[in-house]
Each structure stands twice: as C-alpha cells, then as structure tokens.
Amino acid sequence: MKALAELNRNFREIELKEVKKPRIWKEKELLNGKVANVMVIVLRTPGCYWAKVSGCSMCGYFKETYDAGYDEIKKQIDEAYKKYEGEEIVKFFTSGSFLDEKEMPRDLQIYAIEKFSKAKKIVIESRPEFIKNLEWLQGNIEVAMGLESANDRVLEYSINKGFRFRAWLKNAKLVKKHGKKLRVYILIKPPFLKEIEAIKDAINSARKVADIADVISFNPVAIHGKTIVETLWNRHLYRPPWLWSVVQVIKETKKFYDGVIKCDVVARGMARGAHNCGKCDKKILHAIEEFNLKQDEKIFDGIDCDCREEWLDFLELEEYMI
Ligand code: SF4
Ligand SMILES: [Zn+2]
Q1: CATH class in words for 2-318
Q2: What is the pLDDT at residue 166?
Q3: Which of these, 124, 163, 217, 279, is most buried using a 10 Å CB contact count?
Q4: What is the 236 CA–ligand 2 centroid distance (Å)?
C-alpha cells in the first residue's frame, strides 16, 4: 500500500548514530528438550534493506544500524567471541537479514559461523528473498524467518511486509530442503486489527506453517519509536495486545502444533508492550517464560485476575466498534 509505505519511509530519515559495539546478552532456551544456554549477538550492520525502501509498520530496528564496513563488522564478531562462554546456542541478529550480502558479505557470514562452530546450534535471521543456495552454510543452522501473518491482507495493509504468504512459503520450504531448521516469527496484534481478529490471525498463521516450522516464535507487538504503530498509539488508536490474548494464542497453538512454541514479550507489562491490568502482569509474564522452557500449557491453569472479565468484555465490545 503506497500511503503506508510513504509514511513509513519518512520515519527512516532520522540520523543514525555510529554505534560500533555489538549488543550482547545471554538467555535460556530449549534445545532437544533440555534447557540450554544462549548467547545473543546483535551485530551493527547497514541493516535491513526493506527498512530503507519503506519498512514494516511496527519495526524500529533500523535505529540499531549504521553504515558499518567489512572490517568493523569483523571486529564486532571478534569482540563478541571474547564474551563467548561455550553457550550451546548462538543467535546472530543483524536488525535485518544475515544472508543479505549487502549487509553481511558472504565471507563474513562464513567467518561468523565458523568462529562459533563449537555451538550446538546457530540461529540466523533472514527475509525470504535471500534464501537461495544454502549449501555453503555448514553446521547446525536454524534460519529464523519473519512471516508475521499468513494473511496477505494483513501482510500488505497492516504490516507493509513487502511479500505475500506464497512467496514466503516457497523460500521457507527451501530452508528445509537444504536440511536447515526453520524458526517462524509470528506477530501478535499487527495494527488495524481488533484484538479478537489479532488472536485469530496469529493462530491461523501458526496453523499454516505448523507442518514446516521447527520453532514458532510469537512476538507480541511492542511500540518502537519512529514507527507507524507508535503514531497510532500516541493517538490512542492502538493498544498492544493483552497478555490474556497472548496466553490464548499459545494455548490454542499448542493444541495442534508439536514443535517448540516460544514467546518473547518485549516492554514486558509496560504501556508500550503487551500488558494487562498491572496487578497480574508479572505473574503471567513469569508463566510465559516458564512455558518457553517447559512447553507445558498447564502452567497457565489457575492464573486469574479480575481483568480477565474486562478483557473478555473488550473482545466482545470491540466487535461492535468501527
Ligand atoms: S521487521 Fe524485519 S523485514 Fe521488517 S523492516 Fe524490520 S528488520 Fe526489515
Ligand atoms: Zn489483571
């Protein structure tokens, strides 16, 4: 949609700071049914080409990028390696596509993967258009691909994702054909959807990738600065998802999906992130974290709060709103 693309492009015209250090943190995640240590490395690269063309309505990651050259990125990989403590999983994020050679030249992609070859699994992210011949990707690689929604109308009019589900699926199948694992990101509550529509959209999207995804990772929308979603939120035209909605998406997906379900809640419990009433947020966020590591939906049983009724009323009332 032209208007959405144009509006988004305007946000990208901010001046980017030169940040030369990779952002690194450690976390835990399931690996072959066991809790494993994870090192996450956000490399500062020129970033996502799509964010420069127009970009997705909820994405502010372009602010983490700058025009880093070959040597600078290599230095960042070396710097990250100094902090490597043998974590079983290493995730490389570039605020774009690891496989885009304009962001990460092929030699650097190989360099990064070889450097961390002791890890049992390396996760990289890519838009579908960069999935081509993956034979050169050695080791246990998992390719994470943002689908966000399997509904073309949502992809075009809510997210401005720049591809359709069919094109995404074709490239996702290529990942599997090359013997790599596939992680699929699905967005919970893209803009311009009612809460109930967003719940259904996330579940339907999961259903459509259930037979090829090794991991489904739900991302409840958080309000990033300088985005369309932030503009809507500032005008009270958008509310990030309720945590009850997030729990419902997880529980419903668990009924038909055997792979690993993950959910990372950013801006946890705050106005800019998925939240409930404020009293029960911590409890639910904790349960989601526990679910990520145990995959047991019974964790959510017995969690209740007065705001659950409010959420149910909201779902119903919104149906009558324009
Ligand atoms: S969400 Fe991904 S594809 Fe969209 S602009 Fe951000 S980095 Fe690029
Ligand atoms: Zn509550």
Answers
A1: alpha beta
A2: 98
A3: 124
A4: 21
